[in-house]
């Protein structure tokens, strides 16, 4: 049985603001369906307009926060998970706090005085969507918040600490603080190669955010020796291999080489988990690879791949913190991703049907 606060996530929180709009709205802001972009100045009024003029759904999103929410849902154990990130002092920040509390996660946010809460507009037309992300306060996390006694207590309580690769762009100092603590305290540190978001759908495997491997190589290499589990998709794995001069594009070989990356602590061996869309999940440990099939979904049942990769990690973590076997962790991840892609946004029914 997982205990209170056993899993802690640190990352970039974004409030998903999802609403059905019309073609006129898309044209007004110059956005296209089936596209995902970062907001420009011309897009900034969009978020208030969605909130004020449409029936909207709010979801506490961002890669790490999605995974932690899904893990909490799979566990169904009050207070099992915690989350740290940065929001603004505004109405969207209030929605974020309300949403994460409803999800059963202990959310402890640093509230920035100068930047608005990070948001992602999810504009839906005829079942298709356009995503426009405004990172804003998500980029403003300060290590001083992590060092506060009430927040560092969450680090000390957790046995598993999960951080998506995106956080390397915001607060590498915070990552190193918790990673060094985990290594010294016989805990588990888990990180993604890059984003993994949307890359695992059981059907398709779209390239997503390999830029972490390329532009933040130094910060990534500094953190990697402290990690016990590394997640990624096949595109990110190949980008990682290319950046490090490995003359292979074979996912299994890359997974083994990542698992054998030198460790700062010898307490735990490193396990690499690489998703490949509809192809089997690659798990490398002890210099060997195991392949695990995913749950395939008929295309007519696919609703939305948004957050599918996050859901896979969340489902995996829900079993890992219960010290289940690796095949059960992968099965949990595959189940969670399969549920999420049949719904709009990274959402789920009241209770999981997983055993």
UniProtKB/TrEMBL annotation:
Reaction catalysis annotation: adenosine + ATP = AMP + ADP + H(+)
Cofactor: Mg(2+)
Assigned EC number: 2.7.1.20
Molecular-function annotations in GO: adenosine kinase activity; ATP binding
Protein keywords: ATP-binding, Host-virus interaction, Kinase, Magnesium, Nucleotide-binding, Purine salvage, Transferase
A GO biological process held by the record: AMP salvage
Gene3D superfamilies in UniProt: 3.30.1110.10, 3.40.1190.20
Family matches, as InterPro entries: Adenokinase, Carboh/pur_kinase_PfkB_CS, PfkB_dom, Ribokinase-like
Pathway: Purine metabolism; AMP biosynthesis via salvage pathway; AMP from adenosine: step 1/1
Active site feature: 310 (proton acceptor)
Recorded superkingdom: Eukaryota
One term under GO cellular component: cytosol
SUPFAM superfamilies: Ribokinase-like
Residue ranges constituting the Carbohydrate kinase PfkB domain according to the UniProt record: 26-349
Function: ATP dependent phosphorylation of adenosine and other related nucleoside analogs to monophosphate derivatives. Essential to sustain methyl recycling.
Similarity comment: family membership: Belongs to the carbohydrate kinase PfkB family.
Protein name: Adenosine kinase
Source organism (scientific name): Erythroxylum novogranatense
């Amino acid at each position: 049985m997982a205990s209170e606060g056993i899993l802690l996530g640190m990352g970039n929180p974004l409030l998903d603001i999802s609403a059905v709009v019309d073609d006129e709205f898309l044209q007004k802001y110059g956005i296209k369906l089936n596209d995902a972009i970062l907001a420009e100045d011309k897009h900034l009024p969009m978020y208030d307009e969605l909130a004020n003029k449409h029936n909207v759904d709010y979801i506490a999103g961002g890669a790490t926060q999605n995974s932690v929410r899904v893990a909490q849902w799979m566990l169904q154990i009050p207070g099992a998970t915690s989350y740290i990130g940065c929001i603004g002092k505004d109405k969207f920040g209030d929605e974020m706090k309300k949403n994460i509390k409803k999800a059963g996660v202990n959310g402890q946010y640093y509230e920035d005085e100068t930047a608005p809460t990070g948001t992602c507009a999810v504009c839906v037309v005829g079942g298709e969507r356009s995503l426009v992300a405004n990172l804003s306060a998500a980029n403003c996390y300060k290590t001083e918040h992590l060092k506060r006694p009430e927040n560092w207590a969450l680090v000390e309580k957790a046995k598993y600490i999960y951080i998506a690769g995106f956080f390397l762009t915001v607060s590498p100092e915070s990552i190193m603080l918790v990673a060094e603590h985990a290594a010294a305290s016989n805990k588990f540190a888990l990180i993604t190669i890059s984003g993994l978001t949307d890359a695992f759908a059981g059907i398709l495997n779209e390239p997503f955010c390999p830029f972490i491997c390329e532009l933040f190589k130094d910060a990534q290499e500094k953190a990697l020796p402290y990690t016990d589990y590394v997640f990624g998709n096949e595109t990110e794995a190949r980008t990682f291999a290319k950046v490090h001069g490995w003359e292979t594009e074979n996912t299994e070989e890359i997974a083994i080489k990542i698992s054998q990356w030198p460790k700062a602590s010898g307490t735990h061996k490193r396990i690499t988990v690489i998703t490949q869309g509809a192809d089997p999940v690659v798990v490398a440990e002890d210099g060997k690879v195991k392949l695990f099939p995913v749950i395939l979904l008929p295309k007519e049942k696919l609703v939305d791949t948004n957050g599918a990769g996050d859901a896979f990690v969340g489902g995996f973590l829900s079993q890992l913190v219960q010290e289940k076997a690796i095949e059960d962790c992968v099965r949990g991840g595959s189940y969670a991703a399969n549920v999420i892609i049949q719904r709009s946004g990274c959402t789920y029914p009241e209770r999981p049907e997983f055993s």
